[in-house]
Amino acid sequence: MKLKTSYLSAAVIAAVVIAFPAFLGAYPLNVARSVMTYMALAISWDMLLRSGQISFGIAGLFGLGSYASAIAVMRGGMDPFLSILFAAAFAGVMAFALGFAILRLRAMYFSITTLALMEIFRIVMHNLHDFSGGPEGIVLSAPIFGGNSTALYWLCLAGLFITIGVSWYFEKSKMHLALTAIRNDETSARSNGVDIFRYLLVAFVITSIIQGMMGAIQIQSYGFTTPETAFDANFTLLPLAMALLGGIHSTIGPMAGAVLLGVASEWLKLKIPYGHLMVYGIIIILVILFMPQGLVGLARRMLRGSDKSGRKAGASHE
Amino acid sequence: MSKLVTSGLTKAFSGLVAVNNVSFAMEEGEILGIIGPNGAGKTTFIHLVSGILMPTSGTVAFKGKDITYAPAHMRSRMGIARTYQLIHPLENLKVIENVMVGAVFSKDKSLREARRTAEEICAELELDRLERDTTQLSIFEIKKMEIARALANEPEVLFLDEVMAGLNSDETKGMIATVQRIATERKLAVGVVEHVMGVIRELTQRVIVLEAGELIAEGPYETVSKNPRVIEAYLGGAA
């Protein structure tokens, strides 16, 4: 009964979101695309985080996807839409190869390595003048779908829907037990048949495919990119801040955080150009200090508290 | 054929030899006590057999197959399960999900099948209200949950590392009966580490005694407890 209601409301929201182009102009659709891109990245970051691994490499795989797609179109004459699938697969293959090395690392060693990888990708693209266009970047002959804002919106939305679907599957399948077990206690996981490396590799490859795909969608929508835009640290920091604000270890948390922070960031960019970065920093610090479960955690606690006179809520504080 | 055989099993941590040349065998349906003073290497020994640590030398064989260097998750899939001296609950999973993990990953069961298996095992161990968070459980309940999780792996060999520690006398009595029942019903080979000798006497058919990593005695508890080397190990050298 309760499940049916939530499915129903999800379907209604999806229908409304799909219909946005009918009553929104080009600028709001553009903002929506930006929010959706960050949302997909935030969800993908959280999906790996459910195993306890904190990646700072989102921008790296996002940029890699951008460049794979752009170069495939420019140098290989690939169909732009096909190049998005190609870029996603390319990011997945790269993650698979890298995973064998870096998924043996844990905690901050893993984080720092992913951060370094992101920089390496950027520097390589920056310096391969003949192949990638170097610091000037790449300009495609035209954006995908002739730059039609409705079509671009739907393309981005499709990427987001895929991401939400996969994340939902992660929550409802064996992946949930595997990743949570790995996060909570690797020794216990191993003694109960969990092949830790295999599940980490699957999660890392899938989240990298999502990040590469969103990068490809981004470059094909704008028609140009540079190393500094494609590998912009914002693509790491903002999704991270969104997931933390909304509430980690869930699909709904990063979504809520992305809507709030995404819309706020558009407004902040107008009010205090560049100053918005400081605001993200402050939000991250405040959330970690005072609201580690994020907005979704807060809402859950309040709901539970009003439900059962605080007994359960009290216990969950322990 | 013995279920589990170790031969010359040795583990050295740089200078310290924690387990030294231990050879033993475990048979189907027997409850074996593993005793020895603190720091004798009992837990390290179980780590080696369950694949949490890899030995420096020696071999481990399960049902005649060499598994000396098999990773831990492969061993739990083959049929070697264990609990830990220090509790290891998965705190972001509910009680039922904790138990399901064993069935899902060691026996490749679907979530639905695993849930049914987990419910049956928990009922058998008298563990109820399975939708609770593990933070709401008493130590007795956590220990039962961890045994249930080990059993969900459907093992043939089960190691229980100090499951009685921290329990009151009624709970200990209940736990002894439970361990005896699961060992008989499932034809398990059970290895039990305990410090309370009353428990060992009541529960086990045979004990091995470790001291400073070496196996110094083996046999029924009544015999072993009169062995001068064992008494010396527990009371300290007279000389």
Protein architecture, described:
- The complex is a heterodimer of chains A (318) and B (239).
- Chain A has 16 helices and two strands.
- Chain A has 318 residues and is mainly alpha-helical.
- Chain A has a domain at 20-232: Orthogonal Bundle (ABC transporter involved in vitamin B12 uptake, BtuC).
- Chain A has a two-stranded antiparallel ribbon.
- In chain A, helix 2 (26-49) packs antiparallel against helix 10 (196-222), helix 2 packs across helix 12 (234-246) and helix 3 (58-76) packs across helix 10.
- The two termini of chain A are 31 Å apart.
- Chain B has nine helices and ten strands.
- In chain B, helix 3 (95-106) crosses helix 4 (111-124), helix 3 (95-106) packs parallel to helix 5 (139-152) and helix 4 packs across helix 5.
- The termini of chain B are far apart.
- In chain B, strand 7, helix 6 and strand 8 (189-193) form a beta-alpha-beta unit.
- The chains are: A mainly alpha (318), B alpha/beta (239).
- Chains A and B meet through helix 8 and helix 9 of A and helix 2, helix 3 and helix 5 of B.
Output the keywords.
heterodimer; A: 318 residues; mainly alpha; ABC transporter involved in vitamin B12 uptake, BtuC; two-stranded antiparallel sheet; 2 strands; disordered C terminus; B: 239 residues; alpha/beta; Rossmann fold; 6-stranded mixed beta sheet; 4-stranded antiparallel beta sheet; 38% helix; 25% strand; globular
Strand order of the largest sheet of chain A: 1-2
In round numbers, the mean pLDDT of chain A is 90
Which chain pair shows the most residues in contact? A-B, 23 and 33 residues
Per DSSP, the total helix count of chain B is 9
Q: Could you state the CATH homologous superfamily of the largest domain in chain B?
A: P-loop containing nucleotide triphosphate hydrolases
Overall shape of chain A: globular
Topology pattern of chain B, helix = H, strand = E: EEEHEEHEHHHEHEHEEHH
CATH topology label of the domain at 20-232 in chain A: ABC transporter involved in vitamin B12 uptake, BtuC
Measured by DSSP, the beta-strand proportion of chain A falls in under 5%
Number of helices of chain A: 16
Largest sheet of chain A: 2 strands, antiparallel
